[in-house]
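Practice record 12: protein with adenosine-5'-diphosphate.
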Amino acid sequence: MRAPFSHNTLLVAVAIGVIIVSTGTLSLVSYHYTVGRAYLVETSLVQSIINLVAQKIERIEQAIIDNDRILVEMADVNEPSQWPAIRDEIKASDLNVDEVYFARPRQPFPPIYPTYSNEIRNLWGAYRNSFNLKDIDLNRLALNQPHHLAKERPDNYFFASYVLKEDRKGQRYLVCFQMNNEKIIALLDRYLRDLQANYYVAVVDFENNGIFNQPISRSSKYYYETRFPSTLYKWILQIVPRYYSEIERDVRNQRRTNLFLIIMSMTLIFSSLAIIYVAGRRERQLRQLKEDFISNVSHELKTPLSLIGMFSEILKTGRVKTQETRMEYYSIIHNEAERMGHLIGNLLDFASLERGKRAKHFEPVNLSQLVSRELEAYHYQIQKEGFQLSTEMPEGMPEIYADPVAISMALFNLLDNSVKYSGDGKQIAVKVVQENGYIDVSVADKGPGIPLEEQQKIFEKFYRGSTAVGRKVRGSGIGLSITKHVAEMHGGAVLVDSKVGKGSTFTLRIPIRKPPGQEDVEAST
Ligand code: ADP
């Protein structure tokens, strides 16, 4: 009988264990994923900045290199007589050039052309101070390949593209294109402008002087800087995302939401498990109670049956001498048969209550009379067992509209309990009282009482209290649950007032009601 049960318990325990382990693992993985994702967002933000900057720098450099190619093309060294025209043409076109110098490779200054003039005084001065042999590695200069020179000047920058060229006769020339700083900055602006919607962007020199925009603090979060590799190689591009705090806040919020969801789902899963566990335990307890119930009921039936059998056997032999003893045996048989009848009635009632199919036969009932009848039936047993019975049933109580069979059953259960659980305090008091629109029938005993923590449970089906179990009092645990049901089906209740060691009083409270249709008649008379 018990093997499949424990097998089931083991299965449930394993299932619960698996659920707990998998939930825990899943939550851990989700947590790591969430935290990892935040880190990923940060690294991908940094990576996207690096990519963006690399792309922009490449474009700017490419623009300068493309410009150089055109300049190299235009600077024809074959005809010195053409140099002024070439110079004018280059300066006039949109190639960022302020001045063009044609010079000997080993002697950049003074150039062969142009010669000094007041008009080019400033440019000439910058050229002289910046474009000299120590900055040009002639041995590494390839023919027709543009090179760049970037230098800081006290209050300005010197930028030049230069190229080694050869004429038809094999004569080499160094051509230097002195670039216009403003136009280079305009070029930066053209390529970096669109970045400024989402980033702070600046270009600075090695001393951190702002060339394009103000320098950015290097301690800013997500700050990134890189040098222009070949053309503007003395300059550094700085960048910081404008809205990183928003991005971080989003990531933080997302992390919080995810953690909240993880905790929520864990709580839900664990509470569901707790509910399953509690439900399972209740189920097991109920099963246990039912098993006890069957064995209790069998005992309940067996005792009166064996008494009936024994006394009828004695009577049958005709050996009972006196009429008095014979009558006593007859009443024992009668009482035991009645007890069995009540018990079977209780069982049938309980079964139909369980199925919710008990037929109700309501009629006007005088509760005092019903109680008296019930006591009469019980009188003999009460007296025989040495009980003192006191009753208080005032005349002229109003009738109630009730099911008399059900009420008798409820009364029997209360009386039977008071006899069963009285122990040595053999006093029973039955009272019928009218109060606040109710009729209360109370049955009080001086028995051991009921512990407070059991006082609600005793109305549950199959529940047997510690007194019943401890003192091995016969019973099936359904009497009070039937009584409660009977009271509730009449719109009333069963109340218990009990103190351990002092006794218990159970009160069946039924509302005073007229049969349907008669209330109005009463009210109008
Ligand atoms: P049963 O009497 O068959 O056990 P009941 O439903 O009638 O079942 O009662 C439930 C429990 O309530 C009893 O087992 C007993 O512990 C407790 N009980 C009921 N009536 C009394 C009483 N008058 N005095 C003490 N305990 C009582």
